[in-house]
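This section describes the prediction task in plain terms. A model, or a person checking by hand, is given the sequence of a single protein chain and must write out its three-dimensional structure as a string of tokens. No templates, partner chains or ligands are provided. The sample shown here is typical of the held-out split.
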Amino acid sequence: MGFDAAAYDALTVEELRARGGLKWSRFGPGSFGAFVAEMDTGTAPAVRAALQDGLKRHNAASQGSSMRIARCMLLTEAPSIDANEITDKGYLNQRAVLLKRGALVERLHSRPTPEDVIEIV
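The expected answer:
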């Protein structure tokens, strides 16, 4: 999957808002959150390849299947302590993450594999 300059140039503000990312949806029409570092065009092929390579090496060194990573997504929004996604000790609160990001978890496991999901084979 390479960079498609024509698709990037054809993106409209309406399409970006419809995707629901924080930068384009939080502040309503006529503005956007310039402080938010969201990727409007997906993951760069070089970043995707480096991540797949690193996770393949991790999987090769892992002893058991429960330690292997089969799929991943790069998220545009970090876990939030305000939304109770991070505990006082710095751990992820699985229940809160699933409540807030349930649609992303479903997408991660869906077939066929969506473009924004990185599969480690």
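For orientation: The helical segments are 5-10, 13-18, 22-25, 45-61, 94-109.
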